[in-house]
Design goal:
This protein has 403 residues and is mainly beta. It contains 1 helix and 33 strands.
């Protein structure tokens, strides 16, 4: 019979040293981890769905306001309004503004938006804006997450099925689980060398439909901006599939031109006055061929967001006017001059912000109806969202709820 093994003093010292090493390593990982700098307080109470009003209100008064420096438009989903400021994303009660849930990190937010019923938060990291987390709008619970090499600053463009993260040198496209479907532009450490069709271009504007991802870019030594049409869901996200790319005649260089909308395989591009042509929307098919031109009454302002569908038309805020476009051929249906930003549908009308008021507009005809006075003071732009009978305005760095 074999004698049992006995632990020596050396064995005990080695074991103790291994335990200490493991604890030290775990502590270092914890101290350096993102989890250490993250606070997540979720909500398990009721989130009643907002009741839709049957008519536009005749008056509105402010019921609460909160800072939201990391958003450009109200973030609303279901019965929650979210604000994003500093390092905190807060889900709030629409009627009181009271905090329901909070997601807070020891990093500054780059931006936040709503997509797929979630609040998408984007945080700074050493590479740019590469820390992304989806938060359930009702509870604040963390969902999908990703890290990446994202430009700072970055604009998020919601295409319905996907979200575009657009920076000046790089574009990514994400599906609802935040898995990347397209990588375009600058690539820090390319796994597939020469996979990108060109390099060193400045990305100006982008939008996508189910069939085409359209990118407007400015490349060195080219006389005008370039329109590039890509597959939004290629087999390999690191290898963009280019359908067409060409320099736009008379488009000029810089941000005056922009993507307005993509429907099917057709892309609408705004072009400023140039040569003998006035301001206009030019329509290109999936091969990049110009198929139609629609003149506009006056040049657009500086707004960069693409059109959104509201009330059966594509509604585009140009930076100074609201233009409604056909969803089939992009032909302008009507224009309301002097608007301050994007609107939303309430009680069957398109509610648009104008100076000192909100105006209810028939989306089909553009005929203004009810005018609701709103005290705002000095503001440059106002973006509007509606949740139930609460109207939410983004005014600069503040979110203001009205009822």
């Amino acid at each position: 019979m074999l004698a049992p093994e006995r632990r020596t003093r050396t064995d005990l010292l080695v074991a103790a040293a291994l335990v200490v090493t493991a604890l030290v390593a775990a502590s270092v990982v914890w101290l350096q981890s993102d989890a250490r700098g993250t606070t997540s307080t979720t909500w398990d109470g009721p989130v009643p769905p907002p009741a839709a009003p049957q008519s536009l209100p005749r008056s509105l008064a402010e019921i609460w306001r909160a800072p939201s420096t990391a958003t450009t438009a109200p973030v609303t989903a279901g019965g929650t309004i979210a604000t994003a400021d500093g390092g905190s994303v807060i889900g709030r009660d629409p009627y009181s503004g009271d905090e329901r849930w909070r997601y807070e990190r020891d990093r500054e937010l780059c931006t936040a938006t709503e997509a797929w019923g979630d609040v998408i938060s984007v945080y700074h990291d050493p590479r740019g804006c590469g820390q992304i987390t989806a938060l359930d709008a009702s509870t604040g619970a963390r969902g999908a997450q990703r890290t990446g090499d994202i430009d700072d600053p970055v604009r998020l463009v919601d295409t319905g099925s996907h979200l575009i993260a657009l920076g000046s040198t790089r574009l990514e496209m994400w599906r609802s689980d935040l898995v990347r479907t397209v990588e375009y532009g600058r690539v820090g450490a390319p796994v597939n060398p020469n996979a990108q069709p060109r390099s060193g271009c400045e990305l100006l504007s982008a939008d996508s439909g189910a069939e085409v991802l359209a990118v407007l870019e400015q490349c060195a030594n080219e006389p005008s901006n370039r329109l590039t049409l890509l597959d939004p869901t290629p087999e390999d996200s690191q290898k963009p599939v280019e359908y067409a790319s060409s320099v736009l005649p008379d488009a000029g260089r810089g941000t005056d031109s922009r993507i307005v909308a993509v429907v099917g395989d057709h892309t609408a591009v705004y072009l400023p006055p140039g040569g003998a042509a006035g301001p206009r929307i030019e329509v290109f098919d999936g091969d990049g061929t110009l198929v139609d031109t629609h003149p506009l009454p006056r040049p657009a302002g500086a707004a960069q967001a693409p059109a959104v569908e509201r009330g059966g038309v594509l509604v585009w805020w140009t930076g100074r006017d609201t233009v409604a476009l056909s969803t089939t051929d992009f032909a302008p249906r009507w224009t309301l001059e002097g608007t301050l930003g994007n609107g939303d549908v309430m009680a069957g009308s398109l509610l648009l912000p104008v100076e000192d008021a909100l105006v209810g507009v028939d989306a089909a005809t553009g005929v203004p109806g009810v005018r609701i006075a709103v005290e705002r003071g000095e503001v440059e732009s106002v973006n509007v969202s509606v949740t139930g009978d609460v109207v939410v305005e983004q005014r600069g760095d503040a979110l203001v709820a009205l009822r």
